[in-house]
Amino acid sequence: MQDAYYSTLDKVIREHPIKYDVSFSVLPSTNINNGTKNIYFDTEIGQFTINESGRESSGIGLYFGASTSHRWSLGNGQLLKLTGSLSGMWYEIESLRRIDGKLSLAYRVDESQTHWSVEPYIRKSWYVSSSESSSSDVKALGISLNYLRQLSEAYSLGVEGLVEDQSYIGKPYMSGPFRSTTFKLEHRASADTLYSFNFGVQEHQPEAEHLAYQGLSLSAGVTKSWGNSFTTGITVGVGKRDYIQNYTALTFPRMDQFYSIGMSVQNSKLKLFDTIPRINCTYKRNHSNVAFYDYQTTNCQISLTRNF
């Protein structure tokens, strides 16, 4: 049975080695820059008025992305995949506009009950330059590891790990390593109902010690198909970030706690440009003891994706 699985997989890759996809999204948001409603920042040396650029601002963004990948079958469920992608984000606020590029090479092993991969990559983001602030352009070299085990017909367990070194061209104090690990459990309760549970650990160590943090996150979700065409999903999440050193002009480190709830919907019978639109919205509330980072936002995404 394993040999038949490998044979089918190899045949699919040989017949369709190259894949393309393009995507477009409209991104309405009540707070596109994660700005605060707070007006003042109280410190040990006085009270300061928060600049308008750091205040809550609603708006609509646009996203366009394209990627291509080439796969090579190595036999026995093994493959190499080279992927390149380029995407862009546009907002009315110039500082939020950017172009993202990524190039990766993945080695993947697919077995009947187990799937794992290792993927080194390089990525870079270019932001619109501004005379008022330093460039936010960032380059990162990293590697991601993924492992998934099918425990039974109903349960699967996975883990994802990521390590990357981030380099900010105009803001070197933000440069440094980032690491994350996420454990995933999925339960297929029935043919049309899927439950998921995620637990994540994150760590960032930039040169500026007051920006270094350790984070935890927990989320749970359910996806439900209704009939042959309608699919909905709901996800709730909580998390925290504990920063290492005292924040600038304060006698204590920054500490964030957040929660979120998201919903998604799509109908396979509703098509636009030969694609199925997907709509999802997420509300997030971030509580912080530093006024700049205390915010709430509702972000929506209306997306179209076409695969070739």
Which terms summarize this structure?
308 residues, 16 strands, 14-stranded antiparallel β-barrel, Porin, mainly beta, 1 helix
Can you tell me about this structure?
- The structure is a single chain.
- The two termini are 30 Å apart.
- With 308 residues, this protein is mainly beta.
- It is globular and about 70 Å long.
- The protein has a single domain (2-307), classed as monomeric porin ompg (Porin, Beta Barrel).
- It is built from one helix and 16 strands.
- The strands form two sheets. It has a 14-stranded antiparallel beta barrel.
- The mean pLDDT is 94.
- A hairpin with a 6-residue loop joins β15 and β16 (295-307).
- 5% of the residues lie in helices and 65% in strands.
Protein topology:
Layout: H1 2-15, E1 18-29, E2 40-43, E3 46-49, E4 59-75, E5 78-90, E6 98-110, E7 114-127, E8 138-150, E9 155-168, E10 176-190, E11 193-204, E12 213-226, E13 230-246, E14 253-267, E15 278-288, E16 295-307
Antiparallel strand pairs: 1-4, 1-16, 2-3, 4-5, 5-6, 6-7, 7-8, 8-9, 9-10, 10-11, 11-12, 12-13, 13-14, 14-15, 15-16
Structural class from helices and strands? mainly beta
Q: Total helix count?
A: 1
Compute the gyration radius: what is it?
22 Å
The overall average pLDDT, rounded, is: 94
Strand order of the largest sheet: 1-4-5-6-7-8-9-10-11-12-13-14-15-16
CATH class: Mainly Beta
Contiguous runs where pLDDT drops below 50 for at least 5 residues: none
Query: What share of the residues lie within helices?
Result: under 10%
